[in-house]
Fold:
Amino acid sequence: FIGSEGTLGIITTATLKLHPLPVARCTALLALSSIENAIAMLTLARHGFGPSLTGFELMAGNCLEDVAHCFPQQRLPFEGASAALPWYALLELSDTESEAHARERFESVLAEAIESGCVKDAVIAGSMAQSKALWHLRESIPLAEKASGKSIKHDVSIPMSRMALFVRDTNRALQEAFPGIRHVIFGHLGDGNLHYNVARGGDWTEADLLARQDAVFTLVHDRVHAVDGSISAEHGVGQLKRDALVRYKGAVELALMRSLKQALDPQGIMNPGKVLAALAH
Structure:
């Protein structure tokens, strides 16, 4: 019912399972030369931390540059070549045993990652304040994006094995179709969720960007579909993407959705106009 965005039912009761707070957290910002290396680092972290891995956020370098430009009080904690790399990842471990245990596990995995070459540089938070500062960099990306003007946003899900291919090929296709367009890419790599946004570049006005919105949506969503991804990840379909469903879902899938809606909500009173409007005949 949650996945259907309220179109198939309503929640009347919720039961929560509580877990003990972790006794220690370790946070690091990693400098990376490619998405492939980010995926390799994620694999190492999953193997080394297991369920204690509680954060792995991917960020394009230009996103952090935008944050530093819009909010001068924030800065990238790297210098030299490490400050000019194309990708960064925010890594977090939450440990239930002890601070010493957490630090030992964390440093062991990072040492392996640096030795293997998948991480070029790393800054480990030495305090809770430093950890919050690193997370603040990530959380400020949407704020910097908004401060820079309107953008065209895509909340998509991509198979991990095809993430690098999708970003590389879609970036190239967008530049060929709309020279100068800016890429604003960040997301929750551990979930395969990517905020693949584009913003105006060069001397474009916001009107120039929005005039191309439908064409950009189609190009990006076609690329998502081509790598067996989903055009709707954590933000759902809602109204903005509902008319695109008929382009990316098969006849059997659409018929099943219509049948479920008719069976569970024959009067069409549950969140009307969302997700399924494009399926009505």
